[in-house]
């Protein structure tokens, strides 16, 4: 009997540890290294080779100007010649430049029509410089545009699937200038939390210090505020290896008590720490039904009267009985069970949560989208 009790206690301890481990996440998933961010690139270019689905030069004069400038650079003078071709489209090209991207690294780009082109299917993007926010050219894009949508039109009917005026080019750009920022030995490293919180920052610093005291016998982390944790790389290890090792450390992030509602889609998301003080709630709806039953008035024969339609309207209203329900949630499960006992649709739950917040009984932040 004693062995059975010990086994049950051990199983309970294992289940508790598994539950705690399931709630913990890696530091690399909740924080990023300061300065290591993506940079947005944008450029203006031309897509050629379209099958009569390009821009109309009369409606998109910028396309004609771009074609003339491109041909001038190639030694072809068409300044005084009106262009009427429909196989060229002006596009905006966008891309994301990852941190520490080196010269020659390929990037995926997105191509979007700027004029009145109906489809970019089958087109090829001509060499387009991509500039960053600093006005410098960081990459050059070129290649065949891949479009997932399609469209067709006739005299009396049209067909469209997806968005044929936008597409992508996989590995369509090549980095020509390295992204700003540096990573290497020397200086302090800064971890920036994706969801800023004081408690989470302290837990991250404690987890890193516990690891570095055991491994390197130094105190390497210090929380600055709710968003940043400063790191000092030990001299016996490189910065890249140090970040790789602490990135796999697990912590349990603190989640704020928050309720998010979206009345358009009827979505309700309730955080784990949301609590509701004891309140009495009732919710009912009034239903009004209007029925039109027109009747035909037929006069007697030879009476000189006319046959007419006489309107007849019937109005009835029903309102279900409202019962007060005691609602209190000290845990997420208790709160959900209390809301389910009332038996409401999502719109009713949203209305009740808003009313409870107005009454001061919802101990959480209510976010309406």
TrEMBL record:
Q: Does the keyword Signal apply?
A: yes
Chain positions covered by the region annotation Disordered: 296-316
Give compartment(s).
Bacterial flagellum basal body
One GO biological process this protein is involved in is: bacterial-type flagellum-dependent cell motility
Per the annotation, which location comes first and is thus the protein's main one? other
**A molecular-function term among this protein's GO annotations:** structural molecule activity
Signal peptide residues are: 1-23
The record's family statement is: Belongs to the FlgI family.
What is its biological role? Assembles around the rod to form the L-ring and probably protects the motor/basal body from shearing forces during rotation.
Assembly notes: The basal body constitutes a major portion of the flagellar organelle and consists of four rings (L,P,S, and M) mounted on a central rod.
Name of this chain's protein: Flagellar P-ring protein
Q: Which organism is it from?
A: Lichenibacterium minor
């Amino acid at each position: 009997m004693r062995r059975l009790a010990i086994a049950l206690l051990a199983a309970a301890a294992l289940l508790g540890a598994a539950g705690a481990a399931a709630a913990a996440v890696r530091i690399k998933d909740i924080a990023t290294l300061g300065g290591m961010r993506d940079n947005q690139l944008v450029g203006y270019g031309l897509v050629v080779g379209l099958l009569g689905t390009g821009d109309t030069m009369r409606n998109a004069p910028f396309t004609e100007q771009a074609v003339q400038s491109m041909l001038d650079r190639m030694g072809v003078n068409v300044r005084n010649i009106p262009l009427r071709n429909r196989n060229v489209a002006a596009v905006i090209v966008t891309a994301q430049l990852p941190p520490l991207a080196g010269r020659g690294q390929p990037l995926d780009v997105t191509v979007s029509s700027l004029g009145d082109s109906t489809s970019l299917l089958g087109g090829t993007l001509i060499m387009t410089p991509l500039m960053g926010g600093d006005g410098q050219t960081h990459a050059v894009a070129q290649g065949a545009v891949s479009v997932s949508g399609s469209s067709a039109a006739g005299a009396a009917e049209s067909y469209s699937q997806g968005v044929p005026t936008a597409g992508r080019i996989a590995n369509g750009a090549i980095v020509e200038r390295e992204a700003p920022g540096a990573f290497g030995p020397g200086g302090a490293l800064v971890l920036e939390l994706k969801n800023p919180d004081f408690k989470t920052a302290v837990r991250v610093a404690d987890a890193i210090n516990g690891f570095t005291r055991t491994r390197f016998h130094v105190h390497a982390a210090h929380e600055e505020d709710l968003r940043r944790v400063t790191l000092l790389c030990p001299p016996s290890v490189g910065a890249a290896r140090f970040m790789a090792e602490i990135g796999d450390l697990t912590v349990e992030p603190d989640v704020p008590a928050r309720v998010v509602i979206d009345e358009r889609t009827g979505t309700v998301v309730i955080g784990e720490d949301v609590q509701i003080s004891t309140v009495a709630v009732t919710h009912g709806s009034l239903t009004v039904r209007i029925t039109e039953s027109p009747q035909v008035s037929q006069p007697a024969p030879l009476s000189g009267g006319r046959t007419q339609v006489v309107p007849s309207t019937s109005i009835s209203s029903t309102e279900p009985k409202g019962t007060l329900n005691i609602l209190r949630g000290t845990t997420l499960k208790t709160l959900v069970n209390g809301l389910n006992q009332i038996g409401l649709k999502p719109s009713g739950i949203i209305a009740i949560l808003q009313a409870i917040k107005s009454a001061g009984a919802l101990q959480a932040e209510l976010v309406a989208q």
